[in-house]
Design goal:
By secondary structure, this protein is of the alpha/beta class. About 25% of the residues lie in helices and about 35% in strands. The protein has two domains: about 80 residues, 2-Layer Sandwich (Alpha-Beta Plaits), CATH 3.30.70; about 160 residues, Rossmann fold. Strand 2 and strand 3 form a beta hairpin.
Length: about 280
């Protein structure tokens, strides 16, 4: 099978890379490999056309400088690609996140992930901070939502912490399938995975909501999160920068939500909120 690769150089690398990857995923790109100055995206030649980037909004955003080189290549060994780029990590000496071929460091919590092209390995600041927030909570018996679940990593950790039942939702089919794989791999029994968006939350109620997406989607869907959060429930938000906190606080205040604590990591932030 023949693939087309796009080697993107992105400045500043974040959040432009994250936004660009999301848009390319919708356009049919199958996988992405991080690089020092951006990333490489791959799409099957039969799914490709020379105008495929015309509708990619972020490429026309003057806040970012993005260039790319195109190459036609033979079959890509995806497992080898991400194995070369996915190193095991640890969060606060309590949580290990690793691939099946990594050695188990025998910490209190051990999460085994095969990320493929899905977002959420713990390497990104937002996922790392969300794990820190979840680790500080008593989740036993708490009905939980992981919105924009990616690899399913946060839903998996929530179950390890005692949460149940758990709904994991992602709009991307690849993420939906990858979450199911990772949930099975970690022997989880209380997580249901759904493919869709915030419209699936109608008539639902949760004690804990995890939303690690991006600022614009969070702002757009905040009403849905607030409407399905139980009294005294906890809303965890991430996917934005420190300078975005005022606009997030302004939006959550419309629904009587307040910020209880903030974690910051390399200019990215994660908020713990409650009614």
């Amino acid at each position: 099978m023949i693939y087309i690769s796009y080697n993107f150089t992105v400045s500043p690398k974040e959040p432009a890379s994250e936004i660009l990857i999301a848009e390319l995923g919708y356009a049919g790109f199958e996988s992405f490999v991080d690089s020092e100055n951006g990333f490489v995206g791959y799409i099957q030649k039969e799914e490709w056309n020379e105008n495929i980037l015309d509708a990619i909004f972020v490429l026309n955003n003057n806040e970012f400088k993005i260039s790319y080189e195109i190459e036609e290549i033979a079959q890509v060994n995806w497992n080898k690609e991400w194995e070369n780029n996915f190193n095991p990590i640890q969060v606060d000496g309590l949580v290990s996140i690793r691939a099946p071929f990594h050695e188990n460091p025998n910490l209190e919590y051990d999460i085994v992930i095969e990320p493929k092209m899905s977002f959420g390995t713990g390497h990104h600041e937002t996922t790392h901070m969300m794990i820190q927030h979840l680790n500080s909570l008593d989740l036993k018996g708490k009905k939980t939502l992981d919105m924009g679940c990616g690899t399913g990593i946060l839903a998996i950790f929530a179950e390890m912490k005692g949460a149940q039942p758990i709904d994991a939702i992602d709009i991307d089919n690849w993420c939906y399938l990858n979450s199911i794989e990772n949930i099975e791999r970690n022997n989880c029994e209380h997580i249901s995975v759904f493919e869709g968006e915030a419209s699936l939350l109608k008539n639902k109620k949760y004690d804990v909501i995890i939303a690690n997406i991006n600022r614009n989607i969070l702002l757009n869907d905040m009403a849905a999160y607030a409407n399905c959060l139980n009294a005294k429930g906890t809303l965890l938000l991430s996917g934005f920068y420190k300078e975005d906190i005022p606009i997030i606080e302004k939006e959550i205040s419309k629904y009587k939500l307040k910020v209880l604590s903030v974690i910051e990591r390399n200019k990215w932030v994660s908020l713990k909120c409650s009614l």
